[in-house]
Amino acid sequence: MVSPPARACSRANQLHPERPCGHRQSPDAEQDTAHRTTIGARSIPLREYAPAARYAPGTPEFLFWQTREAALATLQLWESLDEPITKWARSPNRSLLDLFPDNARPDLNSYYDGKSLSFFHYDLARGMYFSSASAEIASHEVGHALLDVIRPDLSGSLLPETAAFHESFGDFISLLTAFADHETVAHVLQQKGRLDARNIVETFGEDLARAVRLVLGATHPAAKPRQGLNRFQWALPSTVPTSGDPSVLTSEAHSFGRVFVGVFYDLIRNLLGSGRTPAALRKAVTTAGRLLIAGAKGAPLTPRFFQAVGRVMMLEDRNVNGGADDRAIADAFRHMGCCSVRARCWHQRQRSPPQSAGP
Amino acid sequence: MLAPTAEITTAVGGPLTGRSAIAALGRRLGGEVGRKTHATRRVEIGGHAVAEVSGERRVSLGSISERLSGVVCYVSNSVLIGDVSIGRAAVLGGIVDPDRVDIEVQRFVRQLVERGRVDFAGTDGLVYAPSRTRGTGGVGAGGARATKPSERRARLATHTVVESEGTRILRRARFACGPDGCGAELE
What we know:
- The complex is a heterodimer of chains A (359) and B (187).
- Chain A is α+β, with helices and mostly antiparallel strands.
- Chain A has helices spanning 4-15, 60-81, 135-150, 152-155, 160-179, 182-190, 206-216, 253-272, 278-298, 305-321, 326-334, and strands at 37-40, 96-100, 110-112, 116-119, 121-123, 128-130, 203-204, 226-227, 355-357.
- Chain A has eleven helices and nine strands.
- Chain A is globular and about 50 Å long.
- The termini of chain A are far apart.
- With 187 residues, chain B is α+β, with helices and mostly antiparallel strands.
- In chain B, the strands form two sheets. In chain B, strands 1, 2, 3, 4, 5, 6, 9 and 10 form an eight-stranded mixed sheet that branches. In chain B, strands 7-8 form a two-stranded antiparallel sheet.
- Chain B has helices at residues 18-28, 98-114; strands at residues 4-8, 39-45, 48-60, 71-85, 88-92, 118-119, 126-129, 153-156, 159-164, 167-172, 175-176.
- At the A-B interface, helix 2, strand 3, strand 5, helix 3 and helix 5 of A face strand 1, helix 1, strand 2, strand 3 and strand 4 of B.
- Strand 9 of chain A pairs parallel with strand 1 (4-8) of chain B.
């Protein structure tokens, strides 16, 4: 999505050029080759593995800096949209979240478990796949951690839509982080079709999809990148297939989350309208990001969580923007098909006698 | 969403306020009286201060899989409440049928089991499967270990069975974002 080596090195130099080295072994395995750093919730204290420099992709030093910088860029993006993160949701040390750029065990995976963000490698025979080499994968995992901070109840939920929302939220945060990068924005706006055509931001996880394709075959559900520009329509999770090739919407959380990713990407497109400048895109992305965060914070925990988030976004827009983006939000949620988010506004003065609902 | 749909009243029609209102609503949401039930969260939506009330109850998972025999999960059902006049609370929006919530949760858990995402032993958060790993050998550019043919394939569980106060509970262990969750495992 973004140019990894240049981005990692230049930003690392700006942040902490003078910090001493320091790394500890991951507890995951005794033969761990991973290097651990911590993402501080308050002041970003970091233990650096190697001095900031330009490293070859795939080297431990590269993975360390790449993951660290992607995570920090994601935090920076978040704090430009919402309040600073002062505590992580469930880390033993609430002000620190461990980050393992390369776990010892081979896997095509990455995860957030409340205590850490962990990434893996896998030998593809034609080269090694590292999940932490992708800035958007790292951003996605940080997205889980951020949502866990504002809605810790969601991670414990066993409702299919909340699980899918968690995954889609990771994708949104990754998308927003990419749009915060000036070079990426310029690239997208220069290409034909701009946001209305396939581009490097709306396409998520190209490297992972390629690795899955090589290892598991082209029909594997994860063998194609997830796209913001999609036409998946919402349906009851219980009525969609449990598995299918990448073109099929299934009940698996990452797959089903693509409905909401499509809604959110459409919202950015709707808010941008005919705008063509980086400033216009930044404004659209900022508005969409703030609405999304408000929606995620306010939506009650119900089986129809996507719809609840959309309704809170509508109400937030009316409260903050006087409903200026009402149409853009409603049109984006129309993407979901039958799931309308027309939010009824209720004011103290417009009271109608409610029916009784005794215990 | 914030339109009042039902006032929270006693059986004889008088207004219920405070904790009694929350407890009454928690029961309507299917919540059990006791541990972790009737939780509330204050939230501001569109400039309106409201409360989210959750009723939480225990759902047995033994019917989904023999391996989940004796395992339960806690299921929440929520609704927003707000004031309609001084001292009178009302439900804002609709209440979802608790049975409907249970059905969705049980289907979700069944799919987790089918996809091999549950660590039944509750040990290390990994689910072990017989190895079908191809021998690849070699060391990558980063010096990381390559996959060995003899290695047992361990996939990351997203959920794990933990024991708490004598009860075996299914809980989320992590959000894992690899292809395992999609119904296949690495070869």
